[in-house]
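User: Quick sanity check before I run a bigger batch. Here is a single chain. Can you write out its predicted 3D structure?
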Amino acid sequence: MKLRSALLGATMLALPFAANAQPVTGLYVGAGAGYNWRGPSDVKNFSLRNGALGGFSVTGKQNAGGGPIALGSIGWGFGNGLRAEVEADYRYGNIPGFSSFSGSRAGTLRGGGHEQKVGGMFNVLYDFVGLTPYVQPYLGAGVGVQAIREQNWHASNSLPFTFGVGGPTFPAGGLQSELQNQFKTVFAYQAIVGAAFPIVSVPGLALTAEFRYLGTSGNRSYNATYRATTTTFASTTGAGKVQLGPTHDYAGVFGVRYNFGQAPPPPPPAAAPAPAVQPARSYLVFFDWDKATLTDRARQIIREAADNSTRVQYTRIEVNGYTDTSGTPQYNQRLSVRRAQAVAAELVRDGVPRNAISIQGFGDTHLLVPTGPGVREPQNRRVEIIIR
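Assistant: Done. Predicted structure follows.
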Protein backbone atom coordinates (compact mmCIF):
# COMPACT_ATOMS: atom_id res chain seq x y z
CA MET A 1 0.00 0.00 0.00
CA LYS A 2 2.80 2.39 0.89
CA LEU A 3 4.60 1.59 -2.38
CA ARG A 4 1.44 2.21 -4.41
CA SER A 5 0.86 5.52 -2.64
CA ALA A 6 4.45 6.58 -3.27
CA LEU A 7 4.20 5.73 -6.98
CA LEU A 8 0.93 7.64 -7.27
CA GLY A 9 2.47 10.65 -5.55
CA ALA A 10 5.50 10.59 -7.84
CA THR A 11 3.22 10.44 -10.87
CA MET A 12 1.19 13.42 -9.69
CA LEU A 13 4.35 15.44 -9.05
CA ALA A 14 5.66 14.66 -12.54
CA LEU A 15 2.49 15.74 -14.31
CA PRO A 16 3.28 19.50 -14.25
CA PHE A 17 6.64 18.85 -15.91
CA ALA A 18 5.78 16.50 -18.74
CA ALA A 19 3.93 17.57 -21.86
CA ASN A 20 2.77 15.78 -24.95
CA ALA A 21 5.67 15.72 -27.39
CA GLN A 22 5.27 18.01 -30.43
CA PRO A 23 7.42 18.18 -33.57
CA VAL A 24 10.30 20.65 -33.45
CA THR A 25 9.45 23.58 -35.72
CA GLY A 26 11.82 26.40 -36.62
CA LEU A 27 14.99 27.47 -34.85
CA TYR A 28 16.29 25.57 -31.84
CA VAL A 29 19.47 25.37 -29.75
CA GLY A 30 20.81 22.57 -27.60
CA ALA A 31 23.59 21.78 -25.18
CA GLY A 32 24.73 18.68 -23.36
CA ALA A 33 27.45 17.05 -21.31
CA GLY A 34 28.32 13.54 -20.21
CA TYR A 35 30.94 10.83 -20.23
CA ASN A 36 32.94 9.73 -23.27
CA TRP A 37 34.66 6.36 -23.51
CA ARG A 38 37.48 6.31 -26.03
CA GLY A 39 37.98 2.85 -27.48
CA PRO A 40 41.44 1.32 -28.10
CA SER A 41 43.22 2.62 -31.21
CA ASP A 42 46.15 1.48 -33.30
CA VAL A 43 49.66 2.84 -33.07
CA LYS A 44 50.49 2.28 -36.73
CA ASN A 45 54.16 3.12 -36.47
CA PHE A 46 56.34 4.22 -33.57
CA SER A 47 59.70 5.07 -35.21
CA LEU A 48 62.84 6.73 -33.91
CA ARG A 49 66.02 7.46 -35.90
CA ASN A 50 69.58 8.05 -34.60
CA GLY A 51 72.80 7.72 -36.50
CA ALA A 52 74.65 6.15 -33.60
CA LEU A 53 71.90 3.77 -32.50
CA GLY A 54 70.24 2.92 -35.76
CA GLY A 55 66.48 2.62 -36.21
CA PHE A 56 63.64 1.67 -33.90
CA SER A 57 60.16 0.90 -35.24
CA VAL A 58 57.25 -0.83 -33.53
CA THR A 59 53.44 -1.09 -33.83
CA GLY A 60 50.81 -1.65 -31.16
CA LYS A 61 47.74 -0.19 -29.52
CA GLN A 62 46.76 2.65 -27.23
CA ASN A 63 44.55 1.30 -24.46
CA ALA A 64 40.97 2.55 -24.00
CA GLY A 65 40.20 5.39 -21.62
CA GLY A 66 37.48 7.82 -20.70
CA GLY A 67 36.69 11.41 -19.81
CA PRO A 68 34.18 14.23 -20.15
CA ILE A 69 32.30 15.36 -23.25
CA ALA A 70 30.53 18.69 -23.88
CA LEU A 71 28.68 19.85 -26.96
CA GLY A 72 26.39 22.56 -28.28
CA SER A 73 24.18 22.75 -31.35
CA ILE A 74 21.96 25.08 -33.33
CA GLY A 75 19.48 23.79 -35.85
CA TRP A 76 16.16 23.97 -37.64
CA GLY A 77 13.12 21.75 -37.28
CA PHE A 78 10.88 21.27 -40.31
CA GLY A 79 7.73 20.45 -38.33
CA ASN A 80 7.45 16.91 -39.71
CA GLY A 81 9.98 15.17 -37.46
CA LEU A 82 13.02 16.04 -39.58
CA ARG A 83 15.76 18.29 -38.17
CA ALA A 84 19.14 19.56 -39.39
CA GLU A 85 21.80 21.10 -37.15
CA VAL A 86 25.42 22.10 -36.82
CA GLU A 87 27.26 21.02 -33.70
CA ALA A 88 30.47 21.87 -31.88
CA ASP A 89 31.89 19.23 -29.54
CA TYR A 90 34.77 18.73 -27.11
CA ARG A 91 36.09 15.42 -25.76
CA TYR A 92 38.89 14.77 -23.31
CA GLY A 93 40.09 11.36 -22.19
CA ASN A 94 43.05 9.65 -20.67
CA ILE A 95 45.38 7.16 -22.36
CA PRO A 96 46.14 4.69 -19.56
CA GLY A 97 48.87 2.83 -21.40
CA PHE A 98 49.91 0.73 -24.40
CA SER A 99 49.65 -2.91 -25.34
CA SER A 100 50.41 -5.47 -28.04
CA PHE A 101 53.64 -3.86 -29.26
CA SER A 102 55.84 -5.79 -31.68
CA GLY A 103 58.49 -5.03 -34.26
CA SER A 104 62.19 -4.46 -34.73
CA ARG A 105 64.03 -4.18 -31.39
CA ALA A 106 60.66 -3.57 -29.75
CA GLY A 107 60.97 -4.29 -26.13
CA THR A 108 57.82 -3.50 -24.14
CA LEU A 109 56.45 0.09 -23.97
CA ARG A 110 54.80 1.75 -21.03
CA GLY A 111 53.44 5.29 -20.66
CA GLY A 112 50.25 7.15 -21.36
CA GLY A 113 48.85 10.67 -21.77
CA HIS A 114 45.60 12.35 -22.73
CA GLU A 115 43.69 12.80 -25.96
CA GLN A 116 41.69 15.91 -26.84
CA LYS A 117 39.13 16.19 -29.62
CA VAL A 118 37.61 19.47 -30.80
CA GLY A 119 35.23 19.17 -33.71
CA GLY A 120 32.39 20.44 -35.82
CA MET A 121 29.64 18.19 -37.19
CA PHE A 122 26.62 18.52 -39.44
CA ASN A 123 23.79 16.28 -38.28
CA VAL A 124 20.45 15.19 -39.70
CA LEU A 125 17.97 13.77 -37.18
CA TYR A 126 14.45 12.38 -37.22
CA ASP A 127 12.02 12.67 -34.29
CA PHE A 128 9.41 9.93 -33.93
CA VAL A 129 6.49 12.19 -33.03
CA GLY A 130 3.41 10.63 -31.46
CA LEU A 131 5.07 7.27 -30.81
CA THR A 132 4.70 7.70 -27.05
CA PRO A 133 2.72 10.42 -25.23
CA TYR A 134 5.42 12.15 -23.13
CA VAL A 135 8.69 11.02 -24.76
CA GLN A 136 10.02 11.79 -28.24
CA PRO A 137 12.62 9.25 -29.43
CA TYR A 138 14.93 10.24 -32.26
CA LEU A 139 17.74 8.94 -34.45
CA GLY A 140 20.46 10.90 -36.17
CA ALA A 141 23.66 10.73 -38.21
CA GLY A 142 26.33 13.29 -38.93
CA VAL A 143 29.59 14.02 -40.70
CA GLY A 144 32.29 16.59 -40.02
CA VAL A 145 35.86 17.00 -38.83
CA GLN A 146 37.72 16.43 -35.56
CA ALA A 147 40.99 18.09 -34.54
CA ILE A 148 42.83 15.60 -32.31
CA ARG A 149 45.75 16.30 -30.00
CA GLU A 150 47.73 13.74 -28.04
CA GLN A 151 48.61 15.72 -24.93
CA ASN A 152 51.50 14.76 -22.63
CA TRP A 153 51.89 11.58 -24.66
CA HIS A 154 54.96 9.68 -23.44
CA ALA A 155 56.37 6.19 -23.75
CA SER A 156 59.39 4.27 -22.50
CA ASN A 157 60.66 0.69 -22.47
CA SER A 158 59.54 -1.26 -19.42
CA LEU A 159 62.20 -4.00 -19.82
CA PRO A 160 65.91 -3.86 -20.69
CA PHE A 161 66.77 -4.68 -24.32
CA THR A 162 69.82 -4.64 -26.60
CA PHE A 163 70.16 -3.08 -30.05
CA GLY A 164 71.47 -5.87 -32.28
CA VAL A 165 74.27 -8.28 -31.61
CA GLY A 166 76.85 -6.64 -29.37
CA GLY A 167 74.98 -3.34 -29.54
CA PRO A 168 74.23 -1.01 -26.65
CA THR A 169 71.91 -2.21 -23.92
CA PHE A 170 69.07 -0.03 -22.69
CA PRO A 171 68.05 -0.42 -19.08
CA ALA A 172 64.36 -0.23 -18.19
CA GLY A 173 63.27 3.32 -18.93
CA GLY A 174 66.45 4.02 -20.85
CA LEU A 175 64.55 4.89 -24.03
CA GLN A 176 62.00 7.67 -23.49
CA SER A 177 59.83 9.36 -26.13
CA GLU A 178 57.34 12.26 -26.16
CA LEU A 179 54.97 13.62 -28.80
CA GLN A 180 54.78 17.28 -29.62
CA ASN A 181 51.38 18.74 -28.64
CA GLN A 182 49.98 19.12 -32.14
CA PHE A 183 46.37 19.13 -33.41
CA LYS A 184 45.73 16.91 -36.42
CA THR A 185 42.44 17.25 -38.30
CA VAL A 186 40.66 14.21 -39.73
CA PHE A 187 37.26 13.35 -41.21
CA ALA A 188 34.66 12.20 -38.67
CA TYR A 189 31.23 10.58 -38.71
CA GLN A 190 28.72 9.80 -35.98
CA ALA A 191 25.44 8.09 -35.09
CA ILE A 192 22.98 9.34 -32.44
CA VAL A 193 20.17 7.59 -30.56
CA GLY A 194 18.23 9.78 -28.14
CA ALA A 195 14.99 10.81 -26.50
CA ALA A 196 13.51 14.20 -25.62
CA PHE A 197 11.26 14.90 -22.63
CA PRO A 198 9.20 18.12 -23.14
CA ILE A 199 8.55 20.41 -20.12
CA VAL A 200 4.94 21.61 -19.96
CA SER A 201 5.68 24.72 -17.88
CA VAL A 202 8.08 26.11 -20.53
CA PRO A 203 6.80 25.57 -24.10
CA GLY A 204 9.68 24.64 -26.40
CA LEU A 205 11.98 23.40 -23.61
CA ALA A 206 12.91 19.71 -23.40
CA LEU A 207 15.40 17.54 -21.55
CA THR A 208 17.41 15.12 -23.70
CA ALA A 209 19.27 11.86 -23.17
CA GLU A 210 21.52 10.42 -25.89
CA PHE A 211 23.95 7.66 -26.78
CA ARG A 212 26.53 8.68 -29.40
CA TYR A 213 29.12 6.89 -31.46
CA LEU A 214 31.87 8.96 -33.12
CA GLY A 215 34.42 7.50 -35.51
CA THR A 216 37.33 9.06 -37.40
CA SER A 217 39.04 7.92 -40.58
CA GLY A 218 42.63 8.18 -41.79
CA ASN A 219 45.94 8.13 -39.93
CA ARG A 220 47.52 10.97 -37.98
CA SER A 221 51.28 11.47 -37.92
CA TYR A 222 52.90 13.35 -35.00
CA ASN A 223 56.47 14.50 -34.53
CA ALA A 224 58.27 12.84 -31.62
CA THR A 225 61.43 13.42 -29.63
CA TYR A 226 63.30 10.87 -27.59
CA ARG A 227 66.15 10.56 -25.16
CA ALA A 228 68.26 7.41 -24.94
CA THR A 229 70.55 6.25 -22.14
CA THR A 230 72.55 2.99 -22.50
CA THR A 231 74.98 1.05 -20.37
CA THR A 232 77.88 2.04 -22.66
CA PHE A 233 77.43 5.75 -23.44
CA ALA A 234 75.85 8.87 -22.05
CA SER A 235 72.37 10.11 -22.86
CA THR A 236 71.63 11.11 -26.47
CA THR A 237 68.55 12.66 -28.11
CA GLY A 238 66.89 12.23 -31.46
CA ALA A 239 63.70 12.73 -33.47
CA GLY A 240 61.06 10.43 -34.84
CA LYS A 241 57.44 9.95 -35.80
CA VAL A 242 54.39 8.33 -34.27
CA GLN A 243 51.54 7.43 -36.57
CA LEU A 244 48.14 6.79 -34.97
CA GLY A 245 45.13 5.16 -36.58
CA PRO A 246 41.37 5.91 -36.57
CA THR A 247 39.56 6.46 -33.26
CA HIS A 248 36.24 5.21 -31.91
CA ASP A 249 34.35 7.06 -29.17
CA TYR A 250 31.16 6.09 -27.29
CA ALA A 251 29.36 8.69 -25.17
CA GLY A 252 26.34 9.08 -22.94
CA VAL A 253 25.06 12.68 -22.97
CA PHE A 254 22.34 14.47 -20.99
CA GLY A 255 21.25 17.92 -22.08
CA VAL A 256 18.58 20.50 -22.82
CA ARG A 257 17.02 21.76 -26.03
CA TYR A 258 14.98 24.90 -26.61
CA ASN A 259 12.75 25.42 -29.65
CA PHE A 260 12.19 29.14 -30.19
CA GLY A 261 8.65 30.26 -30.86
CA GLN A 262 7.00 26.91 -30.30
CA ALA A 263 3.35 27.44 -29.49
CA PRO A 264 2.07 25.95 -26.25
CA PRO A 265 0.22 22.68 -26.72
CA PRO A 266 -3.48 23.13 -27.44
CA PRO A 267 -5.63 22.85 -24.33
CA PRO A 268 -7.66 19.69 -23.99
CA PRO A 269 -11.09 20.00 -25.53
CA ALA A 270 -13.65 21.42 -23.16
CA ALA A 271 -15.99 18.87 -21.69
CA ALA A 272 -19.36 18.87 -23.38
CA PRO A 273 -21.90 20.61 -21.18
CA ALA A 274 -24.34 18.29 -19.50
CA PRO A 275 -27.67 18.33 -21.27
CA ALA A 276 -29.99 20.79 -19.61
CA VAL A 277 -32.73 19.25 -17.54
CA GLN A 278 -35.96 19.71 -19.41
CA PRO A 279 -38.24 21.94 -17.35
CA ALA A 280 -41.62 20.55 -16.43
CA ARG A 281 -44.34 21.83 -18.75
CA SER A 282 -47.78 22.34 -17.19
CA TYR A 283 -51.18 23.15 -18.69
CA LEU A 284 -54.41 24.07 -16.91
CA VAL A 285 -57.84 22.90 -18.14
CA PHE A 286 -60.85 24.54 -16.40
CA PHE A 287 -64.36 23.11 -15.93
CA ASP A 288 -67.86 24.42 -15.34
CA TRP A 289 -69.39 24.01 -11.89
CA ASP A 290 -70.14 20.40 -11.00
CA LYS A 291 -69.13 19.27 -14.53
CA ALA A 292 -66.52 16.84 -15.92
CA THR A 293 -67.19 17.54 -19.60
CA LEU A 294 -64.64 19.31 -21.79
CA THR A 295 -65.22 22.65 -23.43
CA ASP A 296 -63.83 23.56 -26.85
CA ARG A 297 -61.18 25.70 -25.14
CA ALA A 298 -60.28 22.78 -22.89
CA ARG A 299 -59.82 20.47 -25.92
CA GLN A 300 -57.59 23.11 -27.56
CA ILE A 301 -55.33 23.26 -24.48
CA ILE A 302 -55.17 19.43 -24.28
CA ARG A 303 -54.21 19.27 -28.00
CA GLU A 304 -51.39 21.76 -27.37
CA ALA A 305 -50.10 19.68 -24.48
CA ALA A 306 -50.20 16.52 -26.59
CA ASP A 307 -48.33 18.20 -29.47
CA ASN A 308 -45.65 19.61 -27.18
CA SER A 309 -45.08 16.21 -25.56
CA THR A 310 -43.66 15.01 -28.89
CA ARG A 311 -41.05 17.83 -28.94
CA VAL A 312 -39.50 17.25 -25.50
CA GLN A 313 -38.08 14.29 -23.67
CA TYR A 314 -40.28 13.15 -20.84
CA THR A 315 -40.61 10.27 -18.44
CA ARG A 316 -44.28 10.64 -17.57
CA ILE A 317 -47.31 12.91 -17.99
CA GLU A 318 -49.24 13.64 -14.84
CA VAL A 319 -52.98 14.46 -15.04
CA ASN A 320 -54.21 15.80 -11.70
CA GLY A 321 -57.87 16.72 -11.05
CA TYR A 322 -59.21 19.29 -8.55
CA THR A 323 -62.53 20.83 -7.45
CA ASP A 324 -63.73 23.88 -5.56
CA THR A 325 -65.17 23.62 -2.04
CA SER A 326 -68.85 23.76 -2.91
CA GLY A 327 -69.51 20.06 -2.40
CA THR A 328 -68.76 17.48 0.22
CA PRO A 329 -65.17 16.19 0.39
CA GLN A 330 -66.28 12.71 -0.72
CA TYR A 331 -68.20 14.03 -3.72
CA ASN A 332 -65.39 16.41 -4.65
CA GLN A 333 -62.86 13.56 -4.61
CA ARG A 334 -64.93 11.51 -7.06
CA LEU A 335 -65.52 14.57 -9.27
CA SER A 336 -61.79 15.41 -9.42
CA VAL A 337 -61.03 11.86 -10.60
CA ARG A 338 -63.73 12.03 -13.33
CA ARG A 339 -62.28 15.32 -14.56
CA ALA A 340 -58.74 13.82 -14.68
CA GLN A 341 -60.05 10.76 -16.55
CA ALA A 342 -61.78 12.98 -19.13
CA VAL A 343 -58.55 14.90 -19.82
CA ALA A 344 -56.47 11.68 -20.01
CA ALA A 345 -58.90 10.17 -22.53
CA GLU A 346 -58.61 13.28 -24.69
CA LEU A 347 -54.79 13.12 -24.54
CA VAL A 348 -54.90 9.50 -25.75
CA ARG A 349 -57.17 10.55 -28.65
CA ASP A 350 -54.56 13.20 -29.48
CA GLY A 351 -51.78 10.57 -29.71
CA VAL A 352 -50.27 10.33 -26.22
CA PRO A 353 -49.62 6.71 -25.14
CA ARG A 354 -51.95 5.69 -22.30
CA ASN A 355 -49.10 4.00 -20.39
CA ALA A 356 -47.26 7.37 -20.24
CA ILE A 357 -50.13 9.01 -18.33
CA SER A 358 -50.72 8.88 -14.60
CA ILE A 359 -54.12 9.98 -13.20
CA GLN A 360 -54.82 11.35 -9.73
CA GLY A 361 -57.70 13.19 -8.07
CA PHE A 362 -57.12 15.57 -5.18
CA GLY A 363 -60.69 16.73 -4.53
CA ASP A 364 -60.96 20.15 -2.91
CA THR A 365 -57.36 20.17 -1.65
CA HIS A 366 -54.47 22.09 -3.23
CA LEU A 367 -56.67 25.07 -4.04
CA LEU A 368 -55.32 27.43 -6.68
CA VAL A 369 -57.29 30.27 -5.05
CA PRO A 370 -57.60 29.80 -1.28
CA THR A 371 -61.28 29.95 -0.14
CA GLY A 372 -63.44 28.79 2.70
CA PRO A 373 -65.84 25.85 2.45
CA GLY A 374 -68.87 26.04 0.17
CA VAL A 375 -67.35 28.52 -2.31
CA ARG A 376 -67.81 28.12 -6.06
CA GLU A 377 -64.42 29.33 -7.31
CA PRO A 378 -63.89 28.78 -11.11
CA GLN A 379 -60.06 28.77 -10.80
CA ASN A 380 -60.21 25.79 -8.45
CA ARG A 381 -62.35 23.64 -10.82
CA ARG A 382 -59.42 22.44 -12.91
CA VAL A 383 -57.17 19.64 -14.19
CA GLU A 384 -53.40 20.23 -14.37
CA ILE A 385 -51.38 18.46 -17.08
CA ILE A 386 -47.68 18.23 -16.13
CA ILE A 387 -45.10 16.90 -18.63
CA ARG A 388 -42.03 15.68 -16.70
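The first helix runs from residue 2 to 14.

User: Great, the batch can go ahead then.
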